[in-house]
Design a protein that fits this description.
The protein is of the alpha+beta class. 18% of the residues lie in helices and 55% in strands. The protein contains 4 helices and 12 strands; from the N terminus they run αββαβββββαββββαβ. The strands form 3 sheets. Strands 1, 3, 4, 5, 8, 9, 10 and 11 form an 8-stranded mixed β-sheet that branches. A hairpin with a 2-residue loop joins strand 3 and strand 4. Helix 1 packs across helix 3 and helix 2 runs antiparallel to helix 4.
């Protein structure tokens, strides 16, 4: 479950091919500032950081018959929590990921599709390209206070496989712009576990200082 969703999230955050505003021959470079969960929220929820890295994506686009290169660097943090899951027993089933990607615009034109995608489109794109979660269905929207504002969080249901067992899961996703970056947070956990309070604490504990 973890590798599927994480790799697809990174792969989706690429530069679009129709960037008609690139007027020079130089490589355009954009890098986000890391977004992470603060230590206090981790201690309160029992989640631990398991991934802290960056991913650089390059895309060549053709403008006025000439090729240009755009380079975008994203920052990724992932957190996990072990929990008891029926007959499976103690497993690492709680996943929380936060990714920051630069808004990346030139002359008012966005080069990063994540800046304009809705929560529903983003989670469905992830699900359609990942083996991590299937049968994704929208359930509801709610709001959580994080990074100085009230943010919309979309909740979806789906299924995944944990230790060979098919498990019903809930997916919480928030995507919003903050200080020049797009911040995307995704939580996935078994539906039978009451985890929404911990997810809210993780979201409220996000830190990010943009460019």
């Amino acid at each position: 479950m973890r590798k599927g969703i994480l790799s697809v999230l990174i792969g989706l955050l690429v530069v679009s091919a129709g960037c008609s505003s690139l007027l020079t021959g130089e490589t355009l470079t954009f890098e986000s500032s890391p977004a992470a969960v603060g230590d206090g929220a981790l201690e309160e929820t029992g989640y631990e950081e398991t991934v802290a890295n960056e991913s650089t994506i390059e895309r060549t686009v053709t403008v006025a018959g000439q090729e240009r290169t755009v380079r975008i660097t994203n920052h990724i943090r992932q957190y996990q929590r072990g929990m008891e899951l029926g007959p499976v027993g103690e497993v690492t089933a709680g996943q929380f990921m936060v990714l920051s990607t630069p808004s990346a615009s030139v002359a008012g034109q966005s080069l990063n599709p994540a800046a304009s995608w809705s929560n529903q489109r983003l989670v469905r794109e992830v699900a359609s390209r990942s083996r991590g979660v299937s049968d994704v269905q929208f359930e509801r929207n709610r709001t959580v206070q994080t990074l100085g504002d009230s943010r919309e969080v979309s909740v979806f249901s789906g299924t995944t496989t944990i230790e060979g067992q098919e498990v019903d899961v809930l997916v919480h996703l928030a995507s919003f712009e903050h200080e020049g970056d797009v911040v995307i947070a995704v939580a996935v956990y078994p539906e039978e576990v009451d985890e929404e309070g911990r997810v809210d604490t993780l979201l409220s504990g996000l830190t990010h200082s943009g460019n």
